[in-house]
Design brief:
Hypothetical Oxidoreductase Yiak, Chain: A, domain 1; Ribosomal Protein S8, Chain: A, domain 1; 3 domains; 7-stranded mixed sheet; Mal/L-sulf/L-lact_DH-like_NADP; Malate/L-lactate_DH-like
Length: about 350
């Protein structure tokens, strides 16, 4: 009989680790990446979690991603560092950058760690939330793993979704965690709609004729749109400078589409930063002040027909705890895809009996 209920997080994590290991990823690295991929789903970032397994396996099989990467620090000062990801799975370099940034912030008040020769690493929230949970502020950004939009007013695809994330501690259950693409929608959302056969709203993409594009299966025929028009374009360029060029990583026409090209090194650029409020004489006072201000925001009477005011990150702690306890409800399309990947990898299907 088909299993329709949620899958336990640990079981899903074990399956992903097995799949990665089947493509030559050493056990400890496979466990690390699998843990972060499932953690993305636990915190509600389904477009950047286990859904991405097919892409990662394809690049490992095609030679575009190094399964046995040796992540290393190639440049370092008291407060900064540059990590070389050795073209391995992006989660490994970004996890190392996050941990090093936190350590430097503890010593110097700030830690800024760039990454070159990385790869797609899931949602940036994974690399800033730990800072907030440790009483620090976190910042991360990345050059998108494919170019999906032109410079403002142009037609050549030279920019990606170039996401940015910021996290901060608060005196409450939920830290402030803000994670966004610099486009109206992340490409991952469009890909999940395509997987499920659903349309996308107007305003996410336009065709080369300038008309709205709503069929996600035709996403290759058009452009993503930046948030805020020219302002989003400018922000995307700024992130490209900080996460790409500053680290000696790809930006502009050097960016490799990691979905369509499974054989070339992407040289994806990212950075992770941590900031200690104690360096400004605040310590725990920052979290308390943030909680007070946020309470004012939430108390603001909502406009007619609107939900109560929320802050980025609100409710995620409780929802994550529920998913850890009750398991993860994946879409039927994703469940079928994971079963198909299991067959390709010659490992047990995570959803036995499902087509």
């Amino acid at each position: 009989m088909a299993e329709a209920g949620p899958i336990p997080a640990e079981r899903l994590r074990g399956f992903v680790a097995q799949a990665l290991a089947s493509r030559g990823v050493p056990g400890p690295d496979a466990d690390t990446v699998a843990g972060l991929m499932v953690e993305a789903d636990i915190y509600g970032y389904g477009t950047h979690g286990v859904f991405r397994l097919r892409q990662y396996l394809a690049r490992l099989a095609g030679g575009g991603c190094n399964p046995a990467a040796r992540v290393s620090v190639v440049k370092e000062t008291v407060a900064t560092a540059l990590i070389d990801g050795d073209n391995g799975l992006g989660h490994l370099a970004m996890a190392a950058a996050r941990d090093l940034a936190i350590a430097k912030a503890r010593d110097a008040g700030i830690g800024w760690v760039g990454v070159r020769r990385g790869n797609h690493a899931g949602p940036l929230a994974l690399y800033v939330r730990p800072q907030a949970e440790a009483g620090l502020l976190g910042l991360a950004a990345a050059v998108g793993s494919a170019n999906h939009l032109p410079p403002w007013g142009g037609t050549d695809l030279l920019l990606g979704t170039n996401p940015v994330a910021i996290a901060a501690p608060t005196a409450g259950p939920d830290p402030f965690v803000f994670d966004m693409a610099t486009t109206v929608a992340a490409m991952g959302k469009i890909k999940t709609l395509a997987q499920q056969g659903l349309p996308m709203p107007e305003g996410w993409m336009v065709g080369r004729d300038g008309q709205p594009l709503t069929d996600p299966a035709r996403r290759g025929e058009g452009f993503l749109l930046p948030i805020g028009g020219a302002k989003g374009y400018g922000l995307s360029v700024a992130i490209g400078l900080l996460a790409g060029l500053l680290n000696g990583a790809a930006f502009g026409s050097d960016v490799v589409d990691f979905t369509t090209d499974t054989t070339s090194e992407t040289n994806t650029g990212q950075f992770v930063a941590a900031l200690d409020p104690a360096a400004f004489g605040l310590g725990d006072g920052f979290a308390e002040a943030a909680a007070r201000v946020f309470a004012e925001f939430r108390a603001s009477p909502p406009l007619p027909g609107h939900d109560p005011v929320r802050l980025p990150g609100d409710g995620k702690t409780a929802k994550a705890a529920a998913r850890r306890r009750d398991g993860l409800a994946l879409t039927p399309a994703l469940r079928r895809d994971l079963n198909a990947l299991a067959a390709d990898c010659r490992i047990a299907a995570p959803f036995p009996g499902e087509g």
